[in-house]
Amino acid sequence: MPAKQRSQSPNYGWVRMTPKEVIAFSAENKQAIKAKLDQIIEQDMKPEVLKVRGGRQGFGVVEDLYTRWHGDSLSLIAKRRGGELMGEGQELFETKHGRITITGADTFAVAYFRHTDRWFTILSECNLKTALDMFRKPSPVCPGRNSSNLTMEDKLFEELMGSVSEGGAILRGDQTPSRAFAGNGSQIIPLSALTFTPLSQALPAFPAPAR
Question: pTM to 2 decimals?
Answer without folding.
Answer: 0.60
